[in-house]
Amino acid sequence: MVELDFEKGDGLIPVIAQDYETGDVLMLAYMNRDAWLKTVKTGKATYWSRSRKALWVKGETSGNVQTVKEVLVDCDLDTLVLKVEQQGGAACHMGYRSCFYRTVTGGEMRIIGERVFDPEKVYAK
Prior knowledge:
single chain, 125 residues, mainly beta, Ubiquitin-like (UB roll), two-stranded antiparallel sheet, 2 helices, 8 strands, globular
């Protein structure tokens, strides 16, 4: 098993999820050792939710699961890139394909992505 360095980041490492086919950057999240082991075991991207303080299988609520196709590890063993097949067309909880759906130009932010789903309907409580 690959031994990643979870110590530098207080038990967490940053993970970039990238579309396997297009190369689009979909999101940035974090993994602890348990999330990493579950991802390796299941082939489904599993992260550590810093807000909920719990493991989070991407798409367990929305259906927008990320199937891992390839894992890249950086030179310091403390950052990952997951190349994933994004189910449901959206990685962002705001309903966009990518969490990076905005651009900043001249100090102004504007939306460049299109919503794939309405988050109020998907995450209705």
